[in-house]
Amino acid sequence: MAKASAEVEQLHFLLIPLMSQSHIIPLTDFAKLLARQGPVVSIITTPLNAIRYKSIVDHASRSNLKIQLIPIEFPGKECGLPEGCENMDALPSPNLARHFFDACSLLQDPIEILAKKLVPKPSCIVSTSALPWTQSLAQNLSIPRYVFHTVSCFTLLCSDILSKTKVHEEVSSDSDTFFLPDTPHRIEFTKSQLPESMRKNSDDLKSVLEHMKQVESQARGYLINSFEELDPWYVEHHKKIYKNFWCIGPVCLSHREMEEKIGRGNKTAVDENYCLKWLDSKEPRSVIYTCFGSLCRLTPTQLKEIGRGLEASNRPFIWIIRDSDYSREVDKWLKEDKYEERIKGIVIKGWAPQVLILSHSAIGGFLTHCGWNSTMEGICAGVPMITWPMFAEQFYNEKFVVNVLRIGVRVGVKEGMKFGEEENKDYLVKGEKIAAAVNELMDDGEEGEAIRKTARELSEKAKRAIEEGGSSYVNTTLLIQDVLQQKGQLKVNCFSVGLEY
Ligand code: UDP
């Protein structure tokens, strides 16, 4: 790798993620990609999140990257959050999401005080779109802010088109279908599949989301955890509209060593060597990996159906059950049913080393909730997907995977739920449906083979994008140059009005 100039080594990027796994994980990954090109990178976090991410950052520091975590006390209590609730995945109820955002915004003043003492002085802020107050923080510090989008170009476009055309408001019921206008693909939605903020009578997060959008337009640039070769039409569209729109991903490919793939986001609930050995014993591309991210909640009834479906597919599988979903009822069922003794799979109760597992050659399919990070990780691993979106922008990702990229099949969910509405029986997906979708994806026929081939090709393109000289590598360099140029301009501006910089 080319040696960075002294000027670049003096740049200091201040990264501020929303305290949620799907924001901290990609920003920490991106911190490594940035630091490999020379700058100093600091990631703002909270004490409990710092413990989770310490091993990754320590590993990066041992590799001579100038990365540090800066923990700041989280003002959760002031906003009515329970003790220790410093991450969205620790929210006891989705109704507290608004309180969580309020607590995040109280971080602005302490970060400003801290930033003024940092050496070298921060040159810019990179923050996720959910933190609009970081724009005024950047203004107070007289540095540019870059928005780090944790969603795809396709999602951004869907959201833009719907906000402008309001085609979804013309349908009479939540289950009536409509087509998304102005895209080269024929994409059909129902209103119930749209994020809550797009639906009528949406909850009180709507005002937060509107504020975010408004503030976003003041940013200096936009970073997307994607790569240009994935969806060129959608990337080009955004480039025409936004200044400084750069795809800098897939950031999950920042990991080079096994240790980095394990310490990602949490302590894993499984011995990775056991897991790898088990995978080694399986045929290539034969295992189904099943995981629903860090926020989806599944009821015991739904978990039993997933268990039945995976077993009925008669294929080897790894199934992740989130800590918070692993209730006494689920434990009792697994034991009384002697489920784990009977199945051809492994059940992991808690956090899994997802990127490590997905990148094993035995994995042949990924049953996913379509969170953007998980989707990207599936793409990078060249693993086709069985899509099971639930809420937020997950249906956009399903359409992208199935209709645009053509690397997946649907489990067949028609309606989106609201975050926190999982108990509603209408959302139950039966085991038979799950088994059928798994078998459809794993089918040896022409269609299954075409999906696998496309998935392999995209994975190769993703890897090339992140290598030195690849599109995302070059875009990261462009970002660094932009920050350098901004720094120079600020100097000129400050001198011209007689201020010291
Ligand atoms: N993840 C993981 N192990 C788990 C569950 C999730 O490593 O057991 C990671 C996953 O690799 C991804 C992130 O958590 O990077 C989840 O982000 P995503 O955008 O997919 O979904 P969300 O959690 O926002 O629903």
Taking all residues together, what is the mean pLDDT? Answer: 92
- Strand order, biggest sheet? 3-2-1-4-5-8-9
CATH topology type of the largest domain: Rossmann fold
State the end-to-end distance.
Answer: 32 Å
Shape from CA axes? globular
Bound molecules: uridine-5'-diphosphate
Named CATH architecture of the largest domain: 3-Layer(aba) Sandwich
Q: Which parts are unreliable, with pLDDT below 50 for 5 consecutive residues or more? A: 497-501
CATH class category label of the largest domain: Alpha Beta
Output the number of helix runs: 20
CA radius of gyration: 22 Å
Number of domains: 3
| Secondary-structure class | alpha/beta
Enzyme class: transferase
Keywords: Glycosyltransferase, Transferase
GO molecular function: UDP-glucosyltransferase activity
Family: Belongs to the UDP-glycosyltransferase family.
Can you summarize this structure?
Helix content is 45%, strand content 13%. It is of the alpha/beta class and 501 residues long.
Write structural notes for this entry.
Belongs to the UDP-glycosyltransferase family. It comes from Oldenlandia corymbosa var. corymbosa. Its EC number is 2.4.1.-. GO terms for molecular function: UDP-glucosyltransferase activity. The chain is α/β, with parallel strands linked by helices and 501 residues long. The protein has 3 domains: 7-72 and 107-150 and 220-248 and 467-496, Rossmann fold, CATH 3.40.50.2000; 157-217, no CATH class; 268-462, Rossmann fold (3-Layer(aba) Sandwich). It is 45% helix and 13% strand. The chain has 20 helices and 15 strands. It has helices spanning 6-9, 21-35, 47-62, 97-105, 108-117, 133-140, 153-165, 205-216, 232-241, 258-262, 272-280, 300-312, 328-336, 339-342, 354-358, 372-381, 394-405, 431-442, 446-466, 471-496; strands at residues 12-16, 40-45, 67-71, 124-128, 145-149, 177-179, 188-190, 221-224, 245-247, 287-291, 317-321, 345-349, 363-368, 385-387, 408-410. The strands form 3 sheets. The protein has a 7-stranded parallel β-sheet with strand order 3-2-1-4-5-8-9, sandwiched between helices. The chain has a 6-stranded parallel β-sheet with strand order 12-11-10-13-14-15, with helices on both faces. Helix 17 (394-405) links the parallel strand 14 and strand 15. Helix 5 runs parallel beside helix 6 (133-140) and helix 12 (300-312) packs parallel to helix 18. The site of uridine-5'-diphosphate (UDP) has 20 residues, from helix 2, helix 15 and helix 16.
